[in-house]
Design goal:
Blueprint (H helix, E strand, L loop, with lengths): L4 H18 L2 E5 L6 H19 L6 E5 L5 H7 L23 E4 L1 H20 L4 H14 L1 H5 L16 H14 L4 E5 L3 H13 L13 E6 L5 H4 L11 E6 L2 H4 L6 E6 L2 E8 L4 E8 L2 H9 L7 E5 L3 H6 L7
Parallel strand pairs: 1-2, 3-10, 4-6, 4-7, 5-6, 7-10
Antiparallel strand pairs: 8-9
Helix pairs in contact: 1-2, 4-7, 7-8
């Protein structure tokens, strides 16, 4: 039986013994995402299996799968015994078949853009006055990273956490179309608003001389839960020779799908996540930084069937300060 974690959790709620008694294996994919349904499901499974073992009843094998999972964390949680007698669950590492992916951080990419055409880059960045403040904040964040690591300064409040520098993304896409001969470009954005903003920017401004409104040369695909499935299906179609595919997506393209002709990944390092506000006692969708696990997953999209490049629209210092995995 194949189903979502939410549906399986609901079934476990109504007939936990019936499911555990009839199943030989339970496979949970992408466990590293730490979604609430996954975490609650693991709690239910662990407690139910413990009760059945005490009763002498059969229990299924539980298999967690992920390319970027924290093995020790989950192995300890699903282990047997407690305290010093804890025996972690066994782990298996299967070598991946992905191709090498070169990582490029914001400083290096901006240097390449400026070396290519400084006037063009400045023209594009001038379309949004907030980009200058964002660049200055990123530079200051990088400069003070060593002091923060040594505990000499406190972590500054990130006033630009929810900001997405659309002009910089447009400049990177235009530059890639100028310096690279082939391969689809996959851009990770937090949500639909940023997706539509970037698409509008690409068609309005000829980034590095490229007319992205010309459907004969460029094909822009959008991936979002609200986009009709027939429109999203276009992302899997191989394009004719001379037509460059540009994919603007949320984290739906992080693990759920694989586009084989992606060779370049441009990552804002942002996603929209539900966060609980203790003061207002409400849950809100907020634009926040991804975890290092997310970043590695996104980078891997460029190396599925060929060598690729990952362009991080953030500094290397910011990457090292990201959380290792998502908060549940």
């Amino acid at each position: 039986m194949y189903c979502t974690t939410g549906l399986f959790l609901a079934q476990m709620k109504h007939d936990v013994d019936g499911i555990l008694g009839s199943a030989s294996h339970i496979l949970i994919d992408e466990a590293h995402e730490r979604a609430l349904n996954v975490d609650f499901l693991l709690v239910v499974i662990k407690n139910a299996i413990k009760i059945r073992q005490i009763q002498g009843l059969s229990v299924p094998h539980v298999v967690l799968m992920s390319a970027t999972i924290d093995q020790s964390l989950f192995a300890r949680y699903l282990g047997t015994g407690e305290g010093k007698r804890l025996v972690p669950a066994p782990t298996i590492q299967i070598p991946g078949r992905t191709f090498p992916v070169t990582w490029r951080y914001l400083t290096d990419t901006l240097r390449d853009l400026m070396n290519r055409d400084r006037r063009e880059v400045n023209r594009l960045l001038a379309t949004d006055s907030k980009v200058g403040d964002w660049r200055a904040a990123e530079l200051e964040h990088s400069k003070t990273a060593v002091a923060r690591k040594a505990g000499q300064t406190a972590e500054p409040q990130d006033l630009h956490e929810g900001f997405v520098p659309v002009p910089i993304l447009g400049a990177i896409i235009g530059w890639l179309c100028s310096v690279s001969g082939d391969g689809a470009i996959l851009v990770f954005l937090p949500g639909l608003q940023e997706i539509t903003s970037l698409k509008r920017f690409l068609t309005q401004y000829k980034c590095f001389g490229h007319d992205f409104a010309d459907s004969r040369k460029y094909k822009t695909c959008l991936l979002h839960s609200t986009i009709p499935m027939e429109d999203q299906a276009a992302v899997f179609q191989r394009d004719r020779f001379g037509c460059r595919k540009i994919i603007l997506s949320t984290n739906i393209a992080e693990t759920s799908i694989t586009v084989t002709d992606v060779k370049h990944v441009v990552d804002t390092g942002k996603l929209r996540d539900r966060r609980y506000d203790q003061l207002r006692r409400t849950t809100q969708l907020q634009c926040v930084c991804v975890s290092r696990s997310n970043a590695r997953q996104r980078a891997g999209r460029a190396g599925r069937v060929q060598h690729g490049t990952y362009y991080a629209v953030y500094s290397e210092e910011r990457y090292t300060e990201m959380s290792a995995v998502n908060s549940p």
